[in-house]
């Protein structure tokens, strides 16, 4: 499960739907997997406005990955301005965190109710037991 996906998920319990603490889900005992992929600046520039930046930063901090800036970068600041059209370090870090890194095994935990969703072989199980539906 790509870390980018965690920026769009919240706890599935009805009691957590309106609770701010239910987002984002927090990885616990996460076994991370990194698969190198070609950098796609256009994709990152287009997805950047859709991201909850505070959640992206906290996810990176929780997993001990490179620290991102306090505020989301402006899309035009993600490429070097010296005419070389090279990506900045911030763009490379975003790519590594959101696109190349995934949770292979572990748990995703709701910050509100504490429910744990298992992740096995990169697939999260969001089915709730009947008593929690």
TrEMBL record:
Superkingdom in the source lineage: Eukaryota
Family annotation (Pfam families): Trm112p
GO biological process: rRNA (guanine-N7)-methylation; tRNA methylation
Annotated stretches, region: Disordered: 63-87
GO MF, one annotated term: protein heterodimerization activity
InterPro entries: Trm112, Trm112-like
Family stated for the protein in its record: Belongs to the TRM112 family.
PANTHER family, sorted: MULTIFUNCTIONAL METHYLTRANSFERASE SUBUNIT TRM112-LIKE PROTEIN, UPF0315 PROTEIN-RELATED
The name this protein goes by in its record: Trm112p-domain-containing protein
